[in-house]
Specification:
alpha+beta; 6-stranded antiparallel sheet; 5-stranded mixed barrel
Length: 473
């Protein structure tokens, strides 16, 4: 019996424009399967006996995590929300401390939420091989049998054999140059470092105390002063922010004498680029991967993602084409790692395409920006049955609401009213208001905003059933 600990806090900027700061790759359906990478990570383990999972994510993704668990009908033991990003060593420490607070010194299986396996059964077999070693008190990591001289991954050099497919660790190696990677491949002693681990919670904390006691001290303080509600565990933000930014490899694995590695060939990928996604996806006779409404003519070895419009290609070879509602990426496949340079440029220029899609998930439902221009913006808002937006006001914009379907309960100042299909109302600047759905079907509303500033941060929140901060979008 073990407890899956799923790390779901990364940003995934190299899969822009689909993956963005507000909705990174672990929360996306990248291959058209209808499930996200996070959901696939959780359901992939169904062939093994394990406890309810622990999810470690960033506070800003808490509602994405909750909604995706609900959709997959998976109940977590806990969802721990990092107040800020401090790398993998502190994140795993929070999970270990949370399990011990829960009274369970369980074996933790630490997995990233954004990895893919084309041969998942071999992953399950590797986990079963690692479990006895973890039960013996070992810190187990999982290494991938390399298939090419990869320069984008770290490596693990194997030592003497401990059990079937399990070895002691000679050394960890940083991302190599091509010549070194070719030598690793030829030597047969090196594995790709997958970033997956298995160990008992108390063993990890003991090793952390030996090798990075400052980090453990701050994590303990943050968890001791945490706040909890039925959905989330929130470590103390001020105390956690003092924690060093350190990976588990640097903090523990490269220093301990108690680690081992289990080798596997499970068709693993960290989906670190569009080329990686092309490699793990099913390709047609021309080597193409096409999703959405796409027509490919005289096109070969390419990936085409069409999400909102028809996309046609002619004469492409080894290219990436990704279309979203507000951005299009066209890149040579071998240059796809450089997408992060585009993201950095968008961030520097303060472009919204860096961080947000036009379609935005909220705990009460979602909204989609239909049109915008000078001093106006039009959105389609969906409020799920029984849900409500916060009681709020705006200092810079007025709003018109038109009900398309469903029933709306509207608070505007001292007035309350119920609106049905084709009815509308006006929300003046500076007036407290709230929109609720008291009905049994989704409420669809067209919202027309007008004003000199229409940013999502123009909001003052007074009461909110979802525990959001007064100025949180």
């Amino acid at each position: 019996m073990f407890t899956p600990v799923i790390m779901a806090g990364g940003s995934g900027s190299r899969l822009w424009p689909l993956s963005r700061q507000s909705s990174p790759k672990q929360f996306l359906d990248l291959n058209g399967s209808g499930t996200t990478l996070l959901q696939e990570t959780l359901t992939r383990l169904q062939g093994l006996e394990h406890a309810a999972p622990v999810i470690v994510s960033n506070d800003k993704y808490r509602f994405l995590v909750a909604e995706q668990l609900r959709q997959a009908e998976i109940e977590s033991l806990a969802t721990i929300l990092e107040p800020c990003s401090r790398n993998t060593a502190p994140a795993i420490a929070l999970a270990a401390l949370g399990l011990l607070q829960h009274g369970d010194d369980t074996i933790m299986l630490v997995l990233a939420a954004d990895h893919d396996f084309t041969r998942p059964q071999e992953l399950l077999e590797a986990i079963e091989k690692g479990l006895p070693l973890a039960e013996q008190g070992k810190l187990v990591t999982f290494g991938i049998t390399p298939t090419r001289p990869e320069t984008g991954y770290g490596y693990i050099k194997t030592g003497p054999t401990l059990a079937e497919s399990a070895f002691s660790i000679d050394e960890f190696a940083e991302k190599p140059d091509l010549t070194t990677a070719e030598r690793y491949l030829e030597g047969g002693k090196h594995l790709w470092n997958s970033g997956m681990f298995m160990f008992r919670a108390s063993v990890y904390l003991h090793e952390l105390e030996r090798h990075d006691p400052e980090l453990l001290t701050h994590c303990k303080a943050a968890m001791t002063s945490c706040t909890q509600d039925p959905d989330f565990v929130r470590p103390n933000a001020d105390l956690f922010s003092l924690c060093p930014d350190n990976s588990i490899d640097y903090a523990v694995m490269e220093k301990t004498d108690n680690a081992c590695v289990v080798a596997m060939d499970a068709g693993w990928s960290d989906i670190g680029s569009w080329q990686s996604l092309w490699e793990v996806s099913e390709q047609d006779a021309s080597g193409n991967v096409a999703l959405g409404d796409a027509y490919l003519h005289d096109t070969h070895n390419s990936l085409v993602h069409a999400h909102h419009r028809h996309v046609a290609t002619i004469g492409l070879d080894n290219h990436i084409v990704v279309e979203t509602k507000d951005a299009v990426l066209v890149a040579h496949k071998e240059q796809s790692q450089k997408v992060k340079d585009i993201v950095q440029r968008l961030k520097a220029d303060k472009r919204s395409e860096y961080s947000d899609h036009t379609h935005v998930i909220r705990p009460w439902g979602d909204f989609d920006t239909i049109d915008e221009g000078r001093h106006y913006q039009v959105k389609r808002i969906t409020v799920q049955p029984g849900q409500q937006l916060s009681l709020q006001l705006h200092y810079h914009r007025a709003e018109h609401w038109i009900v398309v379907s469903g029933t709306a309960h509207v608070v505007c100042g001292e007035e309350e009213k119920v609106l049905t299909e084709n009815q509308s109302t006006y929300i003046p600047v500076g007036v407290k208001h709230r929109l609720s759905n008291p009905g049994k079907i989704p409420l669809e509303v067209i919202e027309v905003q007008s004003g000199h500033y229409l940013g999502e941060d123009d909001i003052v929140r007074f009461t909110d059933i979802y525990g959001r901060c007064p100025d949180e979008a």
